[in-house]
Amino acid sequence: xxxxxxxxxxxxxxxxxxxxxxxxxxxxxxxxxxxxxxxxxxxxxxxxxxxxxxxxxxxxxxxxxxxxxxxxxxxxxxxxxxxxxxxxxxxxxxxxxxxxxxxxxxxxxxxxxxxxxxxxxxxxxxxxxxxxxxxxxxxxxxxxxxxxxxxxxxxxxxxxxxxxxxxxxxxxxxxxxxxxxxxxxxxxxxxxxxxxxxxxxxxxxxxxxxxxxxxxxxxxxxxxxxxxxxxxxxxxxxxxxxxxxxxxxxxxxxxxxxxxxxxxxxxxxxxxxxxxxxxxxxxxxxxxxxxxxxxx
Length: 296
Fold this sequence. Notes:
The structure is a single chain. By secondary structure, the protein is of the alpha/beta class. The protein has helices at about 65-75, 105-110, 145-155, 160-165, 185-200, 220-225, 240-250, and strands at about 20-30, 35-40, 45-50, 50-60, 85-90, 95-100, 115, 125, 140-145, 170-175, 175-185, 210, 230-235, 250-260, 260-265, 270. The strands form five sheets. The chain has a six-stranded mixed sheet. A four-stranded mixed sheet has the order 4-3-6-5, with helices on one face. Strands 1-2 form a two-stranded antiparallel ribbon. Helix 1 (about 65-75) packs across helix 5 and helix 6 packs parallel to helix 7. The termini are far apart.
């Protein structure tokens, strides 16, 4: 069998009107009045690699193929040069099976499990630092003009977060242009979908920027490095280990990027300050996430 065909990359953006992704729920507000709101739908998705069950994930399940491939790549259970013969998804069983040309057995690795700091209880198997052995990230640049245009473009796009809340987003950008925007109940799922999209469509990560709405944790740094992306940006804050890991490999780590403000704690040599701040707008209240006054 041949490796799954690499196809031209589609532009992936959130579809907040997809009826599968939210449900209307009735409750009462602070005055006791009846109210209805939309909330994201979580579904279990069980992932198999060949004949071996790997994990059951809770996800909005909009891109199961990308999520499955990205998860395996970011867990180092699948390499970017491995031959994948098929990705099969069964909607009724909520199962996705990734089949490879070579035999796989991760029984030992699956016994070494770490619950990550990601929301919705992300899980990592094996050695978390596997990605940092002999890593050399591309020599990219981050123009501040790209950064401000990028964050404005992301905040201006329709999203499931703005429709229903309780969701995280990750966006892959080339310069200031979003090319793949995924959302999920956990940012680890959102970034795994991007990894799967990169693999499925043979995208070069060397000139890309990864943006996330969530915290810059060790998990997010490790996954970004595994994907070969040299720049990671967030509207949220940092963890100490996330910063330490980024500095080890020279990943450009930019956090608290809202309106005119941002802070870089690693890889700042890539930043080109070419934007005059007096021409940058402050962020609209509509696009602020909960808890930002406390640096979520």
